[in-house]
Structures are given as structure tokens and as C-alpha cells.
Specification:
about 70 residues, mainly alpha, 5 helices, elongated
């Protein structure tokens, strides 16, 4: 049963679930305990952080979306 619980936590963390929500799902009253217990299961967190920042600062051509700038005057 413990292995299944550990697997459940690892799948959710890998999918990007936050620690506070995971603590609630696991019945932990302290999200800090959850973080200390399962932090080693977050190897992709640096990649997710890097991708989030890359997406936030990407140009219109790279992202294929609106860059937030006003159109040039004619």
C-alpha cells in the first residue's frame, strides 16, 4: 500500500500538481511535511520552471501568439 501511495504522489508531482494540493490529497496537515517527504520526486521541476519562463518571454514568432504590443501606426 505504501508503494502505491508513493507512486500516486510521484505521478501527481511529475504532472505539475502543487505541494499544498498533494498534501491535502494525502491527508497531511502540513504541506511542509509533504515537501520534505516527496521533494526527491520532483526532478522535472527545473525543466517546468525553465519552460514557463521561456514561454513568458517568447516572441510572437516563437509562440505564435500576440506579443502584447500595440499595432504600428500607418
Amino acid at each position: 500500500m505504501h508503494a502505491l501511495r508513493h507512486y500516486y504522489a510521484s505521478v501527481l508531482l511529475d504532472a505539475g500538481e502543487n505541494i499544498k494540493a498533494l498534501a491535502e490529497y494525502l491527508g497531511h496537515s502540513d504541506p511542509g511535511f509533504t515537501l520534505r517527504t516527496y521533494t526527491h520526486l520532483m526532478p522535472n521541476s527545473q525543466d517546468r520552471a525553465r519552460n514557463a519562463i521561456d514561454a513568458a518571454f517568447s516572441t510572437d514568432a516563437e509562440a505564435g501568439g500576440d506579443d502584447g504590443e500595440a499595432p504600428a501606426a500607418a
